[in-house]
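Dear Dr. K.,

Following up on our conversation at the group meeting, I've run the structure prediction for Small ribosomal subunit protein bS21 from Symmachiella dynata. I'm pasting the input sequence below exactly as I used it, so you can double-check it against your construct before we proceed with anything downstream. Let me know if the numbering doesn't match what you have in your notebook.
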Amino acid sequence: MVKLRVRDKESIQDAVRRFRKLVEHSGVKKEMRRREYYEKPSDAARRARRRAERRAKMNRTMS
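The predicted structure tokens came back this morning:
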């Protein structure tokens, strides 16, 4: 959960900008997009496996 306290003499635009930054850094936006639609467990596992394969391939080429 992201909490933001508006500082003294802080404009609303500055507070909104800080709030957006906090939301982005906390991962709330990413999690919300991920949960927007139902993903079958088999599809999630396939996506994770492909991501791991790409990571392993990149590590092999870097070494």
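Two things stood out to me. The chain has one domain: 12-62. The helical segments are 12-26, 28-34, 41-62.

Best regards,
J.T.
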